[in-house]
Amino acid sequence: MCRPLAFFAFALLLCPAAPALAQQPAQPWGSWLIGTVQLPGTSERRWGGFAEAQVRTNRVLRQYFYHELKAGLSYDLDKNFTVLLGGGRYATSDYRALDAGPLNVERRLWQQLVLSQYMSRLRVEHRYRVEQRWFRHRPDSSSFRGRLRYRLNAFLPLNHPTISNNTVFLSVYDELFINPTGPLLERNRLYVGVGYQFNARLTLQTGWLHQANYSQRPLPAAQIGPQNAPRKSNVVLSMVYRLNTHKATAAPEHLPTQQD
Q: Can you give the three-state secondary structure of 79-139, one letter per residue?
């Protein structure tokens, strides 16, 4: 049980986010607050979806500067493969001048494929995503960017063999953000957290997320860039509520993945 988790943890240490921790001056910790409603697919009803709201602050639970609203429609090809079409609105502001309105508003469309693997107690998720992003900058300019993302996420239930009712679990992921027009590596996210699944409907999770921004595309002089530190640690608090329509006595296992 421990060998695959140890291998995964070692692989994460090799990712670009790990050495970045010692290369930049310390930034104040921020926080991400995430609320998600999911309609998971089943073997009988393969269509599903989600809706999510997220708020981010520059410091822990204060200095709000960012929010996003997004939703998506998914289809389970089988238990291990899911495709999704999603979209959302993302707004970044200056926490010192919220009355002035957002610095920029992004509208995003994405397509993704999720591959899930079940190895004894360890669950591993591979997520591949292609994004199209339209920006509206203050005072009055716009731009378009494309992006590719890959996330490797591992889950380990601690007190049950599966992630089911009353289960404590560990979650670790690393995600790469790729700019297809270069520079190649745009961003890296490393997350380590612990969660609790109360039942088939409700899951809570908290953890540490370190985000490193490696390249920023230059903006014209008239545009105001997003408020985004090169490297920053955050406290993540997330809640997932599933609209469970499965009528069997035991609901199927769903991995407690974060949509962001």
A: CCEEEEEEEEEEEECCCCCHHHCCCEEEEEEEEEEEEEEEECCEEEEEEEEEEEEEEEECC
Query: Whose CA is closest to 58, among 231, 206, 193, 234?
Result: 234
- Give the domains, in start order, of the chain with CATH numbers: 2-21+40-236 (2.40.160)
With vertex at residue 189, the alpha carbon angle to CA 183 and CA 193, rounded to the nearest 5 degrees, is 175
Report the alpha-carbon distance of residue 120 to residue 183 in Å, rounded.
39
Q: pTM score, two decimals?
A: 0.86
Please name which of 85, 79, 80 lies closest in space to residue 42, comparing C-alpha atoms: 79
Residues 109-125 have pLDDT tens digits of 999 999 999 998 999 99
